[in-house]
Amino acid sequence: MDGIKKISQSGLDRSRRVVLRAIGEKEEEVKNEGRERVKPKEGLRSGGRVDGLNKFSLEALKKAEEEKIAYRREAQKKQEEEIQKKLREAEKAEEEKLRQAKIENARREEEARIAQGEKRRKEERLQTQARQEAERKEEKKKTALIKKEEEERARQEDAEWRKREEKRSRQKEFIRKLKTKGGYIFSTVRAGIIFSSKKFLPTVLIIFAVYGVVYFGLCVSLLIFKVNNENLKKLGKYFPPVPALLSADWVVDYYVYVDATTERKLSADEAKDYFMEKEALSELYGRYNLPTLFLGEEALKQGAEKLILADNKVNQTGLARIKKIRELVSGNNFLEFGAKYADNHGTAKISELALELPGGLKEARSPVITGKDGYYILESNQAVWEEDSKVNYIFVKAVTLTDYVLEKKNNSKVWALVRN
Length: 420
Hints:
It is built from eleven helices and nine strands. It is α+β, with helices and mostly antiparallel strands. The strands form three sheets. It has a four-stranded antiparallel beta sheet with strand order 5-8-7-6. Strand 6 (369-370) and strand 7 (374-379) form a beta hairpin. It starts with 8 loop residues before the first helix and ends with a strand. 10% of the residues are buried. The model is unreliable at 33-53 (pLDDT under 50).
């Protein structure tokens, strides 16, 4: 028909099998599907051929191929949707994992914060307990010191009372004996006076007059004319010392004065200052019971310098001030409190202050420490007290040995009898 070669049924079957193999279908399924779906139209007989092809077989193949493609597209679409669903589920799972991780981190941070707060509160409690314990120890030490001072004062008062009682007893005994033997003594003395007034008294008066005249001449020779020789020195042994310097409390012998001025090459004013200082120091050495016979002048001065700082009579004001400051500085800013109530304050190394630290010092604030010229309270921010450590300090000045001697000089009235 129209020059087209008619295809035989066997050739058509082979072509269909090729197409079916290409699209992945079986021959029987296509045949059945074609038989079910393709119905011959009226006027045409079943299995009619056009140009050598079976018309209904080609349409069935075309329709099957289109359905196959639609099926594949639908399957691909479902697969893509499944993949998208799995991706969304994976994203949700990852987001959930991140959210759980954030919740876990927040929980751990909260636990760490709570633990840190608990640790800080524990440290604060320990510090508070340590401070309270230190304050209790300090209060206990202060109470013990006050008790000791009261006991010492009571002991001194008791000793003074006993001395007064003994003195009063001796006076009563003397009065009793005097009353007992008064008549005898009075009569004896009266008889002696009557006898002396006639013969012995004039002789005694003459002797005393001569003695006084000779002593006066000796004083004039030494003090005014400065006649200093061996004969006068030998003669002076039989008379009271000739005073070169005279005060209300002490007298300097002429020969002691001359030896000191000659040996030390002192002028009159320098000699006066020298003996005033010497007498003031001698008074302190006696008060502190220092062995003047066994120690040299420098050793005695060093001992007196330390003892005078602890002398509650000389340094009563300074000791009372530093103790009061030590009591009240707790709970206050250290340096601000020192600026208000102390003589000096600041920051320095312990070695620069030249202080000897007490042993076993562990508290942040030291007890009262005695220096060379006053009293210190130290505050350290370090756990260990060392010589090179920088500390805050409060200082109260004390009356030193030099201050004491200078005050004695200013308050003493000394008359120089020797001529310059």
